[in-house]
Amino acid sequence: MIHRLLMDGLPQTMTKPRNVAQEELERRRLAWYYNHLLKTVLQGETAPTLERELYDQWRIESEDALSFMLIQTREQSPLLQKQVQESLCLSWDQLFTDSAGRLLVILKAPQAVDAAGEQLYSRLASVWPSVLIAISPVMRGRGSIHALYASALKLLLQKQYEAGSGFISGGRRSAAVAELTLEDDVHLEAARIEKHERELFVRELEQVLRLTKKGVPDVVMIRLRISMLELEVCSRITQLGGDGAPLLERLRYRTGSLEELSTYRTLKAYGLTLYDEAAVLLDSLHEGKESSPVEQAISRIDQEYRSGLQLQELARAVHVNPNYLGYIIKRRVGVSFKAYIHSRRIEEAKRLLRHTGSSIHQIAMEVGYSNADYFIRMFKRTTGLLPTVYRQQ
């Protein structure tokens, strides 16, 4: 057995059952309850009473050293859970699952946790070659649940990005260096955008797009890599007093959702559009022009495209000539004022067709078309499909 590093078993708090079957039923009920409680906390519920109940159950005091272990395979199974439980000598209240189905182990006083993690990985990899195990750095005491989980998840995603499977620990220098290298890459690419170093950015983007796994493009990891760049760009925008959300909305309306892209061409277009949009916004923020007429106008379009917004009305609101506003909007987004409004409406309609059961007439009205027949013509002109056909795909 792997050396027991984990939490000591708790005193029996259940009413003594009449037989083994009742004992097992009660154990499962409590295990489900505390797993649900932990998921609730990890998903953002900050009620102190919930966290206190978890800490009391785990017998964690303010100075106790803690670490989280996350275990992921392509296909979770009861056999995996049993193997982990037996290998680490876990009791019922020490092994959980997160909302994505990963196994989550709470480690208390984890002095030799790296050795245990490596041994566990060796055992599991013989059955599940794709297994990933990540162990967070050690933190102390109550109030560290979110930080421990976020750290373990970040390490796991990093290892998945770099190798697809394996073991990684936040307590090791090598792991920290690898994490730093990955973060440095993202910082560097964001800096390319901020400094208008487009040629270098394109070269680095193309290297990301060539990521492979077993000789084929690793689309999941490419998407993950681009999404990390998005987060870094939005962080810089926020630091300058701006808002990255409208930028990401425009990006998705122009190129589609990142999760839906799967080819070299479409992913490259997404990355380049991110560069173009972010470079303009970062420039305006650096120059103190985040309230420039074109930014005000586009922000208002993004909020009011469902209404009957007119160019003349918008020009009066931002205090510029309508013809000039139409010209700078086209330079900014690549299409005319009217075409941009139509594109926003059609993209919203596509989202509603995918995710709601609303009728075609209802969707037409919701996105800003008072005539359903006109909406259908515009939808087909834009997408090449009738709304009903698009919904069925």
Quick take:
The protein is an alpha+beta fold. The chain has 17 helices and 8 strands. The chain folds into 3 domains: 152 residues, 2-Layer Sandwich (Alpha-Beta Plaits), CATH 3.30.70; 158 residues, no CATH class; 53 residues, Homeodomain-like (Arc Repressor Mutant, subunit A), CATH 1.10.10.
Spell the H/E element sequence: HHEHEEHEEHEHHEEHHHHHHHHHH
Compute the average pLDDT.
Answer: 78
* Strand count: 8
Structurally, the number of domains stands at 3
Termini Cα gap: 52 Å
Helix content: 55-70%
Largest sheet: 6 strands, mixed
- Report the β-strand fraction as a percent range: 5-15%
Radius of gyration: 26 Å
Unreliable spans are 1-17, 173-180
Number of helices: 17
The global form is: elongated
Return the structural class. Answer: alpha+beta
Pfam family, one: HTH_18
Domain HTH araC/xylS-type: 295-393
Keywords: DNA-binding, Transcription, Transcription regulation
Protein name: Chemotaxis protein CheY
